Amino acid sequence: MVRSSLSAAEARRVALAAQGFGRPPATEASTRAVNAAFARLGLLQIDSVNVFERSHYLPLFARLGAYDRSTLDRLTLERTGPYTEYWAHEAALIPRDDLRLFRWRMDALRERDAGPTRIDGVTRTAGVRRELHALLRAEGPMRASAVEHESNVRRGPWWGWSDVKLGLEQMFRWGEVVSAGRSGFERVYALPEHVLPAGFLETAPPRAAAVLELVRHATRALGVGTRADIADYYRLRSDDTATAIAELTAAGELLPVRVEGWAERAWLHPEARVPRQLVADAVLSPFDPVVWFRRRAERMYGFHYRIEIYTPAPKRVFGYYVLPVLQDDRLVGRVDLKSDRQRGVLRVRTAWQEPGEHLDPERLADTLRRTAAWQGLDTIEVTDRGTAAAAVAGALGTLLVPHGAVDDADAPETAATAAEQLDAASA
Questions:
Q1: Among candidates 7, 11, 60, which has minimal Cα distance to 34?
Q2: Tens of pLDDT along the chain (427 residues)?
Q3: Would you call 1 exposed, middle or buried from its count of C-beta atoms within 10 A (0-12, 13-18, 19+)?
Q4: Rounded-to-integer distance, Cα 220 and Cα 267, Å
Q5: What is the DSSP string of 236-281?
Q6: Distances (CA, A) of 118 to 114, 129, 167
Q7: SS3 letters for 327-368?
Q8: Are 147 and 132 in contact (CB under 8 A)?
Q9: pTM exceeds 0.85 for this model
């Protein structure tokens, strides 16, 4: 039956089902399951923060349950794997075949960077880029830190990018170099011919055709969404997205719908399921597609979310690395998690119930136990901060830990090495 409207609850369930929720967690997720989940999402956003776990590992855990992170590493971080990295949403892991769909973006970034409003350093790094190209051709793929030397003074107010790192990032944006995986968390750069089939980028579709395909990907991953939702998934221009939506709608590949409570028009993917109910229990990365577009999270779940990593500690409301809590088709709370690997403890530094929502502490306790086991941590500690802290501690059968009783320093967990800090600016 063709749907012309959805209730707010139906829209939530459509979106979550399209994202892979509503299936019972696997006892052991196979490589096939990891690939299937990746295909459903289309990309995994990368972020450098490691206070709990790096962001790109978390969406698959939320959907699959415990899985071997080395499986994802093998698929995504090695140069021969089926995935690569580019600026898709932000810096993200994507299927290698999809890299061609961003060739137009590479060209547009090159034109913009070299234009009247060019980014600082394009002229300064021209000679460095020529040297880097010759070095990569002679030596093969390498990390920025392997190229830098003492005479290359690092510059910049925060990350201190050297000319080498800046030059490599410019070349990466423009497609002159591509990712050959990562070593630790540091990107390995390569010339396209080192890791891609001959002529791979040269046979990329034109911009309009590529955008059309990206809109297909986005609408399938979203299930239902407004034009802004669809455009945000791959950070597309609104006008390009509107043109693609119109073409797909005319072809019957998208169905216009009205969603209860949404002021804007929406489109439903014709293959999207509309479950009568959906059972899910997960903590979500701040960079999970369910919440990464904050306007959609507010419209769909009534969930106002701002990450507070860069907020001074005294001004934080919910915590440093706060993960939304998903129960069924609602975002019912948030927890600030830290993996204290030296002590073998998963620390719940704050736990909050969303106003007007029902957070089931027993279900959250089970989710936290699975999370700790996946992290290889033996114990869970709950700090006495947040409206749900006491209930969660009770469900876990543990006493609340007074705030300040354990060192809350975040910096050592944020970026373990200078190389990771350099790469964080591109993540």
A1: 60
A2: 568 999 999 999 999 999 999 977 666 788 999 999 999 999 999 998 999 999 999 999 999 999 999 999 999 988 878 999 999 999 999 999 999 999 999 999 999 887 765 655 687 788 888 999 999 999 999 988 888 654 454 444 433 458 888 899 999 999 999 999 988 888 999 999 999 999 999 999 999 999 999 999 999 999 999 999 999 999 999 999 999 999 999 999 999 999 999 999 999 999 999 999 999 999 999 999 999 999 999 999 999 999 898 889 889 999 999 999 999 999 999 999 999 999 999 999 999 999 999 999 999 999 999 999 999 999 999 999 999 999 999 999 999 999 877 766 654 344 333 333 333 333 3
A3: exposed
A4: 11
A5: --HHHHHHHHHHHHHTTSSEEEEETT-SS-EEE-TT----S----E
A6: 5, 16, 14
A7: ECCEEEEEEEEEEECCCCEEEEEEEEECCCCCCCHHHHHHHH
A8: yes
A9: yes
Half-sphere exposure of 121 (CA within 13 A, CB side): 17
Residue 247: HSE in the Cβ half-sphere, 13 Å Cα cutoff? 13
Query: In the 8-state DSSP scheme, what is residue 78?
Result: B
In contact, 301 and 15? CB cutoff 8 Å: no
Place of tokens 């509503």: 22
Q: Which residue has the tokens 């129960």?
A: 327
Q: Read off the tokens for 224.
A: 């239902």
Structure tokens at 205: 């579709």
Cα→Cα distances 80→181, 311, 377, Å: 8, 39, 32
The Cα–Cα gap between 27 and 141 comes to 38
